[in-house]
Design goal:
The complex is a heterotrimer of chains A (371), B (291) and C (274). Chain A has 9 helices and 21 strands. Chain A is α+β, with helices and mostly antiparallel strands. Chain A has 2 domains: 236 residues, P-loop containing nucleotide triphosphate hydrolases (Rossmann fold, 3-Layer(aba) Sandwich), CATH 3.40.50.300; 118 residues, OB fold (Dihydrolipoamide Acetyltransferase, E2P). With 291 residues, chain B is mainly α. Chain B has a single domain, classed as Orthogonal Bundle (MetI-like fold). Chain B is built from 13 helices and no strands. In chain B, helix 3 packs parallel to helix 7 and helix 12 crosses helix 13. The chains are: A alpha+beta (371), B mainly alpha (291), C mainly alpha (274).
């Protein structure tokens, strides 16, 4: 088990920048997730760590060993780095049985037969594929193949696990189940694990820490909790969480000695707690963010709008099982609220209250978070 | 940094590069070099005389006849094979029972050696008891009997006909694959829109066969340029020089008359003509692959 | 029962008539091979022999047996060598990224299209320098070298279908370039090997040009050249000529009957008849 350190990593394919100036330190035994929309960046970083792709510049360290550095002309081949990788399509060897597939990494390293037998069997046991050892990959289901790929990666006890969207080809139900098993397995083995996914739920549920990447650039690194509650910019705020955070464009104005967020359709008073941070933005365009679960429906009293409440029209009511999604609008401003129950009817008005202590503020120009 | 593994693989690639490098590229260069010399007779002589051989070519009636015959071959054989192949492909596309058998039979001649097909056609075209003349006699078409490949007026056309017979299966195969790669849903949509039968093919199918037609065209053109074995065995260029082509002339002048420099000059011209066809094609297909 | 539409009838008449035209020369060859000289005169070439005989076949076999064995030897050897080299090249060109790989591919591809006339004189000179003129070895070397471009193309097309992730997995599993070829790529290559082997066998077997310039009239001359000679020397013995043709065509006919599917894949892959 080792830590993985990446310094100034850059890789470009033609004009497409896959990774740019990435700096990162993954701790020993950590479950670290690269999260981002589909594109070339995340996997490229993983391939650079594995040694399957040579970066244009930067360094990769496995523990105390520098394994990649184009500047210093250092490049250790993937065969010699003790990292294992699981690919999205599993990349099983179609002509070999499951046993042979799992044994392959040991065989090419010249381990002796008895040792191979023992370790393949133990790994198969651990992953519950003992009864499949004589089959060929073509005879296996998606879930079984995925396990074989994991077994092949685990069998030689690598220092680092690299997983490239390993659950993307499974059906929804199996994905949820495997997610948990994978997390348990990682905790049990304690191997440093780097996991690439575009699925934020996967990232949030499994990771110790997450790096959100977009177009090769790091948007934020943090624990799932930090990303959810303190997104550092508009992209992270919008990418993490489902349903997505509501964004309202507004201007900060001062009126009657108070600060207001003027969203044209309505005005929201700025809570006293965040006034100091916002003060310098008076007159500027901002984006306010609020998560659907921080919106509440309030019994409306006929004719009178409650304080701090917005009167909005219910457009769609979407039952999602444990809760409901209210799609609301006021003029051109749409909002989604997540509520347990509702009295609203489609097309009718309803009063919505915001939990102002939970709002996020972003500078519209730079998209960076202010608070 | 080279591992042992990498070294073995590289050595194999190197072997291929050396073989192809020598036998294709170096030999082409060498041939051009020979063509600029005055080498005549069995002992090699590399006395460079410049473009003398080429100048001589353009005053040589045999060369001009051969060039003309190659041109006729290209003008008749290439379109003839393309059309017959397309025709057969369309026939087979009409949901024919036993399609595989028909396809296999039409393609069979293409799998055979030119020496085999040339011998077969020599028997077909034989004046006295050959296949065609006997059949004509039996069916009362006596007046159509002919010397075929011995008749100076039609010998070249007889060669073209036999070659079309041999290559039509190939173009059929290419076109049939092209037709089959058009999505079924598109054909259905066209049928719903009211196209059927001949119109369906003319308006919907054939316009989409440009790519297979182009690759078949290049293959046939290059063949028509370098045609040798078939003609060598069937007519040996005769009667007179009526079926002489460049490749045959190159062979005769080089290996029978030992005019090595002169033969090399003919070969160089053949090579340049082939480049004119192949280079644009390769350029196109490489560009397509990059996209 | 529904009576077939007249259009369908015309279609099948056209198809069957084409079959007649395409098979006529071969059919005439087969019948003639079994005819006595007398039958040759008294029957038309399309009719079966009145008194079938294998005498022409035996005569032709005695003339052709040595050249047939020659052809078989260098064809099989050059087939194996060119397939192996093509396979390794295809692997390198698709699965190992290196600068200039496109140029290497172009370098090979051009070799498919060149008219061999352009190399004939230097080819003969090379072979005599190597002492391989009029030798089986010379034919093997020539057919291997000129086979590499097309086999490389064939294997490259097939290896393009093996996912890169499989190769990457093998690399992280600890396998080196050659191990990956031997343990992963080669075992997955049965189909391309059959396609390339069938294609190379028929091409080399059918070749005349290299045979005639490298081994004409010698002990090691190939069957194609021997058949062309037979045609020249048996002007009026059509039955022997046809029997010789049949012997020479037989291996290809057998392959065609059994493995046409694979040969077709070779033709489709942009393969060109030399």
């Amino acid at each position: 088990m080792v830590s993985v350190t990446i310094k100034d990593l850059t890789k470009q394919y033609g004009t497409c920048v896959a990774v740019k100036d990435l700096n990162l330190e993954i701790k020993d035994g950590e479950f670290f997730v690269f999260l981002g929309p589909s594109g070339c960046g995340k996997s490229t970083t993983l391939l650079c760590i594995a040694g399957l792709v040579k970066p244009d510049k930067g360094e990769v360290w496995l523990g105390n060993e520098l394994v990649t550095s184009p500047e210093r002309d250092i490049y250790m081949t993937p065969q010699k780095r003790e990292v294992a990788m699981v690919f999205q399509d599993y990349a099983l060897y179609p002509h070999m049985t499951v046993f042979k597939n799992v044994a392959f990494p040991l065989e090419v390293r010249g381990e002796d037969k008895g040792e191979i037998m023992e370790r393949v069997k133990a790994t198969a046991e651990l992953l519950g594929i003992s009864q499949l050892l004589d089959r060929k990959p073509g005879q296996l289901s998606g879930g079984q193949r995925q396990r074989v790929a994991l077994a092949r990666a685990m069998v030689r006890k690598p220092k680092v696990f690299l997983l490239d969207e390993p659950l993307a080809n499974l059906d929804a139900k199996l994905r949820v189940k495997t997610r948990i098993e994978l997390k348990k397995l990682q905790q049990k083995l304690g191997v440093t694990t780097i996991y690439v996914t575009h699925d934020q739920v996967e990232a949030m549920t499994m990771a110790d820490r997450i790096m959100v990447q977009k177009d090769g650039v790091t948007e934020q690194i943090g624990t799932p909790d930090e990303l959810y509650n303190h997104p550092s910019n508009l992209f992270v705020a919008g990418f993490i969480g489902s349903p997505e955070m509501n964004f309202i464009d507004c201007t900060l104005i001062e009126e009657g000695n108070r600060l207001w967020l003027d969203a044209k359709e309505f005005k929201i008073p700025v809570p006293a707690k965040i006034v100091p941070e916002l003060k310098s933005y008076i007159g500027e365009d901002l984006t306010m963010g609020i998560r659907p679960e921080d919106l509440y429906e309030r019994e409306s009293v006929k004719g009178i709008t409650q304080k701090n409440a917005l009167r909005m029209t219910a457009d769609i009511i979407e039952p999602v099982g444990p809760y409901l999604l209210l799609h609301l609008s006021k003029g051109r401003c749409p909002l989604v609220a997540r509520v347990k129950e509702t009295t609203a009817r489609i097309g009718q008005e309803v009063d919505i209250e915001m939990d102002l202590s939970k709002i996020h503020m972003f500078d519209k120009k730079t998209t960076e978070a202010i608070i | 940094m080279f591992t042992k593994d990498r070294l073995i693989t590289s050595l194999f690639l190197l072997l291929s590069l050396v073989l192809v490098g020598h036998f294709v590229y170096f030999c082409i260069g060498w041939n051009v070099f020979v063509s600029l010399s005055d080498w005549k007779g069995l002992a090699p002589s590399y006395n460079i005389v410049g473009f003398d051989q080429y100048l001589r070519l353009f005053h040589d009636p045999v060369f001009l006849t051969s060039l003309k015959n190659n041109l006729i071959l290209i003008l008749l054989f290439v379109p003839g094979t393309l059309f017959l192949g397309l025709f057969l492909a369309i026939l087979l596309d009409l949901k024919v029972r036993g399609e595989g058998v028909f396809r296999g039979i039409y393609l069979l001649p293409f799998a055979l050696s030119f020496v085999v097909t040339a011998t077969l056609w020599a028997w077909m075209y034989n004046l006295k008891i050959g296949v065609i003349n006997t059949l004509l006699g039996k069916t009362g078409l006596e007046f159509l009997k002919s010397g075929w490949i011995t008749d100076p007026n039609i010998a070249l056309y007889c060669v073209v006909l036999a070659l079309i017979w041999q290559f039509a299966g190939y173009t059929m195969l290419i076109f049939l694959a092209g037709i089959r790669s058009i999505p079924e849903s598109q054909i259905r949509a066209a049928e719903v829109d009211g196209a059927s039968g001949f119109n369906l093919y003319r308006r919907v199918v054939i316009p989409q066969l440009k790519a297979p037609a182009l690759s078949a065209f290049v293959v046939l053109m290059v063949f028509a340029l370098k045609a040798f074995d078939f003609i060598f065995v069937l007519t040996d260029g005769g009667p007179g020089y009526r079926t002489y082509v460049l490749a045959l002339m190159m062979f005769r002048w080089t290996f029978s008359k030992n005019e090595f420099a002169y033969g090399a000059a003919i070969a160089t011209i053949l090579f340049l003509l082939a480049l004119v066809i192949v280079v644009p094609y390769l350029y196109l297909s490489f560009r397509r692959e990059k996209e | 029962m529904r009576s077939p539409k007249p259009r369908r009838v015309i279609l099948y008449i056209l198809l069957v008539f084409s079959v007649f035209l395409f098979l006529l020369p071969l059919w005439a060859c087969i019948t003639t091979s079994f005819k006595t000289v007398k039958d040759l005169i008294y029957t038309t070439p399309v009719e079966p022999p009145l008194s079938p005989t294998v005498a022409p076949l035996i005569t032709a076999f005695n003339i052709m047996v040595r050249p047939l064995l020659n052809s078989f030897t260098f064809t099989v050897a050059a087939m194996i060598l060119s397939c192996l080299l093509g396979s390794i090249n295809g692997y390198i060109l698709t699965k190992i990224k290196f600068r200039g790989s496109n140029i290497v591919f172009l370098f090979f591809t051009i070799g498919i299209f060149i008219p061999y006339q352009a190399v004939l004189v230097p080819l003969v000179l090379t072979m005599s320098k190597l002492g391989l003129y009029n030798q089986i070895g010379g034919l093997i070397l020539a057919h291997t070298a000129y086979g590499i471009p097309i086999t490389t193309l064939l294997f490259r097309n097939f290896y393009g279908l093996i996912p890169d992730s499989v190769i990457m997995a093998a690399k992280t599993d600890g396998a080196g370039t050659w191990t990956i070829y031997r343990r992963i790529v080669l075992p997955l290559s049965l189909l391309p090997f059959v396609v390339a082997a069938v294609f190379q066998f028929t091409s080399i077997w059918n070749d005349f040009l290299f045979g005639v310039v490298l081994a004409r009239g010698s002990e090691v001359q190939p069957a194609s050249v021997a058949l062309a000679n037979l045609k020249g020397t048996t002007e009026f013995q059509w039955n022997v000529q046809m029997a010789g043709t049949l012997w020479y065509a037989l291996p290809v006919l057998v392959i065609y009957l059994i493995l046409a599917k694979y040969l077709i894949r070779g033709y489709m892959a942009g393969a060109v008849k030399g």
